[in-house]
Design brief:
It is a single chain. The strands form 2 sheets. The chain has a 6-stranded antiparallel beta sheet with strand order 1-6-3-8-2-9. Strands 5-4-7 form a 3-stranded antiparallel beta sheet, with no helix packed on it. Helix 3 packs across helix 6 and helix 8 packs antiparallel against helix 9. The radius of gyration is 19 Å and the shape is globular. The chain is α+β, with helices and mostly antiparallel strands and about 300 residues long. About 35% of the residues lie in helices and about 15% in strands. The model has no long low-confidence stretch (mean pLDDT about 95).
Length: about 300
């Protein structure tokens, strides 16, 4: 399908995307409730010793990864949801209409609290990444997320952090993450106060690859330098992940419409976060299309 045909299909589907009933019909086995963070059986939480290890690694290296936590059944449902959204001709981030992606976050509650404190909030910046198992597939170019100045506390712990959950394995063949740990990045400290600071002074031997099994939560600060590698046609599966921002409730909200976790979160609120995220992350691409007004009007109409 040509790029133009994909755009036309997206526009034709948008009116349906504003209806919860459309999404329930698309994936009948997945719920859309008003309390998506509730789970009947929370995953076992890490030991206090492991939580302290996570905290220490975040303080020293500005990231950490958990053990595989989400069940194979949950991961299969997430993948089905994302692939269903894509097959319907809509951006994969619309999968966030379903409870299961918020329930997935709940399973890592203790790890989040170890960094951000017992009360933390979901920032309306959501993403789903589907990297094809082909030579054309690739992750983001090297960057820092760097959307907020001074998003660290007195100990250097993040007050805003990126959360990235693997649904399928992320490997060197299907675009795993590569990072420069904080203590190996001479420009990390400068980037906290200057969001334009890139990274060109590190030693290449200090780059760390993060091949990641399914069901793992990875998280990092706003200032960690990282990227996704080029995929290969020799990869067995696409790299499917989803990501959010979380922030500590001890600091002022970095944007409006942040959500306390856990909290009620109905369909309209979720659709609003999805539309905000699409506009925020893809505005330049959308605006370049000759029918961008119709698309942007939909995003505006459903943003609370």
């Amino acid at each position: 399908m040509s790029v133009q045909a994909k755009w036309e299909r997206l526009l034709s589907q948008l009116p349906r995307a504003g209806s919860a009933e459309f999404w329930r019909g698309l994936n009948r086995d997945l719920s859309i409730s008003d309390h998506p963070f509730q789970v009947p059986h929370p995953a076992p939480q890490p030991s206090p010793a492991l939580l302290e290890e996570y905290r220490q690694q975040m303080e020293e290296e500005a990231y950490f990864q958990t053990e595989p936590t989400l069940s194979a059944e949950m991961l299969a449902s997430m993948r089905t949801a994302i692939e269903g959204v894509r097959e319907a001709g809509l951006p994969a981030v619309f999968a966030f209409v379903y409870d299961i992606f918020y329930q997935g976050l709940t399973h890592f509650d203790a790890a989040f609290a170890s960094v951000l404190g017992e009360s933390y909030r979901l920032v309306p910046n959501l993403a789903v990444y589907y990297i094809e198992a082909s030579d054309q597939g690739k992750g983001f170019a090297p960057h820092r997320d760097a959307e907020y100045l001074d998003a660290v506390d007195e100990q250097g712990m993040p007050t805003v952090m990126t959360v990235w959950i693997t649904i399928t394995e992320a490997s060197p063949l299907n675009s795993c993450l590569y990072i420069v740990p904080k203590h190996r990045d001479p420009q990390y400290a400068d980037s906290i106060q200057d969001l334009s600071v890139s990274a060109d002074a590190f030693a290449w031997e200090d780059v760390r690859a993060l091949p990641t099994p399914p069901g793992v939560m990875s998280c990092w600060s706003q200032y960690l330098f990282h990227w996704g590698s080029r995929a290969s046609r020799r990869a067995k599966d696409p790299r499917i992940t989803y990501a959010v921002y979380l922030q500590s409730a001890k600091v002022a909200p970095v944007t409006d419409q942040t959500v306390a976790v856990p909290a009620a979160l109905g369909f309209e609120e979720r659709l609003s976060m999805i539309c905000r995220s699409l506009r925020h992350n893809n505005y330049a691409t959308f605006a370049s299309w000759d029918r961008s007004e119709e698309l942007l009007a939909f995003l505006d109409r459903h943003t609370l």
